[in-house]
Amino acid sequence: MLLRSGPLCQRGIHQLKNICMVRSQNSCLALFVKNSNAQQIALQYICSRSTMSMIRQHFKQAVPKSMNASVRKLSTTRSQNLVAVAKNNGSRTCGNGFCALTSKKSYMALARNDSSGNSLISNCLHRQFGNVGCVRGLRTSARCSAPPLVALLILKPMAKLGAVITGRAFRQWWKALPPNKKDVFLALLRKHKYHILGAVAGVYGISALYYYTHLKATPITNRKRFIAFTESQFRKISEVEAKQMVEKYNGKFVPGEHPVYKIVLDATNRLIRGNQDLHQVTERTWTIYIVDEDVKNAFVLPNGEIFVFTGMLQAVDNTEQLAAVLAHEMAHVVLSHAAELVSFFNFIDFLLIVVLAGLWAFLPNDGLAMVATWFKNRVVQLLLQMPYNRNLESEADEVGLQIAAKGCFDVRESVAFWEGMNVRDDDELKDIELLSTHPTHKNRADRLSELMPSAIDLRQSCNCPALPKRDPMISVERLRKRLEDERSAKKNTTHGIVIQGA
User: What gap in Å lies between CA 130 and CA 143, rounded to an integer?
Assistant: First the structure.
């Protein structure tokens, strides 16, 4: 997919948030809106010749001139109820939105509800675009068994609260129960113990079946993992998160004409151009936001929104190291790690609902139950969530190294970057990986060093220029020596008075 910049969209298209832009292999563009609310504005907007010129100039892509004529004709129908129709035995989707849909023969038709409008618009598009190759590959998501997103997000906290309330109510009921009735209740439990065990086993059996029927292979590494969401469902989460991030850092974004913006843009474009074989890269519109904050961080949301903080730009020594960071974050998106983490953590929480209810039911008071619940959460975090997160980070390091290699960057700089981060970090707990969601800087550098021969071979197979003769680790050793000297001098200084050595 094309790379669009955040600042440009803020100047030009930000008020039309429902507009999507699609590019196919032949570099044609198609624009469409997602719902009827923005339909009239959007159709008028894309009919503007100045808008088409702006798109051509920024994206440097060949927008078919025939699109201007087609959208002018479509603009006459903007007040009508539009539908999308795929002909020649293709699928049919009707609705109020202005949609794009391909048929089995990969061409598209747009139509209004009435028959005359249907003939007019579909003929117009077929005559102007012929086979409409510029929207080939645009399709609705395939059906997949998955829980509704809103229902799942609401059900999880309600289930936890219900377990606490149920367990606490059972404890209070049991305390108030006379001894003879307690004996009767225990007798009933013993009598029906096999039924109870069967019911519990059935619930966990269904859970296991659900887990194994939702295992999917990761791209590139082919690792089996549990995914409970469809791509469209999780896209809704990322869109909401992206909106929140833009609102959070509003007023702190570096403008598009700033030199650092061009550096990040050029590095990202090289990564995208070098990985055209990955549909997870080409099917997204990658958007860059540079946040003016002294924070050593960068992240990419699942919808392709790239956020880079100026503090991270100061932490890298060159563009090659910046590309290594960006490639790592893009690898998370390619591998759908965000959807995997949410799916895994929610599944674990569901399995532990019974444990939560048991803590509140059998511990003698609320204080002990609260402490036990906190301890349970910490154990789950320490033994399940953090190790799982570290594994995903290591996988993103591996795939990110491949992405950077195919972008013809100096992959050796990735090792130099993490070695440099390790040298700069003076935290006493930096080497305790058990307490972190990420591997230590040193372990990441060592792991990347192991993968370096295959990454260099991959880089060479992509006909990239030869690697520079200069070893990136030289600068790391210089940095190490300088920081050691500074720390040594600091230790020999007390309240500004230098203590002379013997």
Answer: 30
**pLDDT bucket at 149, cuts 50 / 70 / 90:** low
Token pair listed for 259 = 């030199």
Give pLDDT tens digits for 436-455. 889 999 999 999 999 999 99
Q: Is 20 helix (H, G, I), strand (E, B) or coil?
A: strand
| Residue 329 is among the residues annotated as catalytic for this protein | yes
* Residue 323 near residue 405, CB atoms below 8 Å: no
Residue 297 reports pLDDT greater than 50: yes
Mean pLDDT rounded to a whole number for the chain:
74
Q: Are 97 and 39 in contact, with CB atoms under 8 Å apart?
A: yes
Tell me the pTM: 0.68
Place of tokens 């404890």: 171
User: Could you tell me the CA-to-CA distances from 131 to 105, 220, 267, 324 in Å, in that order?
Assistant: 8, 33, 35, 40
- In terms of DSSP bridges, do strands 493-494 and 497-498 run parallel, antiparallel, or are they unpaired? antiparallel
Residue range 68-76: average pLDDT? 36
Q: Residue 287 class from Cβ within 10 Å (0-12 exposed, 13-18 middle, 19+ buried)?
A: buried
- SS3 string, 204-243, reads HHHHHHHHHHCEEECCCCCCEEECCCCHHHHHHHHHHHHH
Residue linked to tokens 């196919």: 24
Distance separating alpha carbons of residues 297 and 3, to the nearest angstrom: 21
Whether the CB-CB separation of 81 and 91 falls below 8 Å is answered with: no
Active-site residue identified among 320, 329, 340, 393: 329
Q: What is d(CA 272, CA 266) in angstroms, rounded to the nearest whole number? A: 10
Place of tokens 């209004």: 112
Give the span between the Cα atoms of 13 and 32, in whole angstroms. Answer: 13
Question: What are 84's strand-pairing partners?
Answer: 93, 110
pLDDT tens per residue, range 182-215: 999 999 999 999 999 999 899 889 999 999 999 9
The full 3-state SS of 357-380, as one line of letters, equals HHHHHHCCCHHHHHHHHHHHHHHH
